[in-house]
Amino acid sequence: METNPIIVASGKITDQIYHIDVQAYAVKHVVSTFVLETPEAILLLDTGTSDDVKNILRFLKKQGIPLQRIKYIVPSHYHFDHFGGGWKLWNILKESNPSVKVITTQKTHDQLQDTALHMQRAARTFGELGVGEMHPLPEEAYEIIDPDTILPIPGLKPGQEFKLIYTPGHTGDHCSPTLLENGYAKFMFAAEAAGTLFHSTRLITFGTSMPPEYNTETYIKSLRKLIDLEPEAIGYCHFGAVMGKENVKTVLQENLEYTTFFRDFVKKHYEESGSVRHVVEVYLKEEAAKRSDRLIGDLLSKILVALVYGQLIDLGLKEPK
Ligand SMILES: [Zn+2]
Fold first, then answer.
1. What is the domain range of residue 88?
2. Which member of 100, 204, 211, 293 has the lowest number of beta carbons within 10 Å of its beta carbon?
């Protein structure tokens, strides 16, 4: 019997990794975060929004993970829906472990310390869903590292290393926190460097062409970098995880093809109409249904408007607002 390669439930997904559905916007199956556990350290990979932090704490409690074991909080990138809760979680965790750090690159640090414009844009697009709050942290909260270098995580198995693989494209600061074993990815939190997955059984993706930073060329380069690491399992920001080397290869390849398909689709339908609304309507009619069996209605439309808009900026057909 074939088992479904896609995991959407919260829980332990490998002997070292947990998946958490943070239930962003109080909706299931929209935003994922992950936990890496070794016998000596716990790392939280992303946090969701500041409103989602309580759901992470509830999950950790349910799994019997004591807060004082959490050594690092690791952002994939600065966006509100992925690390909007970082400041809040750090403040809570430091009560149990005064040496807990947000470990990240200089680029992401700089973005996280100055989020006013990002939150303005977020509120404009996703406002009524609730985008939470973002606040800067004291500098002592951070440990700054270079991307693509080895992070010393105590308790990893022989041959294992942990790195923030630099994968710009969705944003300029984007990294994919990755557990490597003998040079290959044992588990990769692709985050938003490999599209989004809103289907519960089919390995079929959407893109992450959010305004204003999306860049198709660097995105494709980053995605190829991930493919070369031959991951055994990958995690998405949106949503869940895909297990098994062959399945991961399939879904990464599918997103690579989708990336140029979507760019050409947006270009064609925008040029024939000059209207973002028109592009979204054609997409909803021709593409959306086969790509998702759970993302519907208003949230889907909002996301699509943003994805089309971001792609148009990259194509030079729109200016960032
Ligand atoms: Zn993002």
1. 6-151+159-314
2. 293
Residue 201 lies in a domain: yes
Which residue do the tokens 């690390």 mark?
83
CA 83 to ligand 1 center in whole angstroms = 9
User: How many angstroms separate the alpha carbon of residue 237 from the centre of ligand 1?
Assistant: 8
- Going by pLDDT thresholds of 50, 70 and 90, the confidence category of residue 138 is very high
Query: Within a domain: residue 321?
Result: no
CA end-to-end distance (rounded Å), the chain: 50
**Which CATH number characterizes residue 265's domain?**
3.60.15.10
Question: Which tokens hold the place of 126?
Answer: 């996703």
Q: How far, in Å, is the centroid of ligand 1 from the Cα of 138?
A: 23
Is 80 exceeded by the pLDDT of residue 293?
yes
In a domain, residue 320? The reply is no
Q: State the distance from the centre of ligand 1 to the C-alpha of 178, rounded, in angstroms.
A: 17
- Residue 144 falls inside a structural domain: yes
- State the burial class of residue 302 (Cβ atoms within 10 Å of its Cβ: 0-12, 13-18, 19+): middle
Distance of CA 284 from the midpoint of ligand 1 (Å): 22
For ligand 1, the distance from its centroid to the CA atom of residue 70, given in whole angstroms, is: 24
Model confidence pTM above 0.90: yes
Q: How many CB atoms lie within 10 A of CB 217?
A: 9
Q: How many angstroms is it from 79 CA to the middle of ligand 1?
A: 5
Q: How far is the CA of 2 from the centre of ligand 1 (A)?
A: 32
Q: Which residues, 6 or more positions from 158, have their beta carbon under 8 angstroms from its beta carbon? A: none
For 285, which DSSP code? I
Distance 227 CA to ligand 1 centre (A): 20
Domain count, the chain: 1
For 192-240, how does the pLDDT look when each residue is reduced to its tens digit (9 = 90+)? 999 999 998 999 999 999 999 999 999 999 999 999 999 999 999 999 9
Indicate the pairing of strand 11-12 with strand 17-21: antiparallel
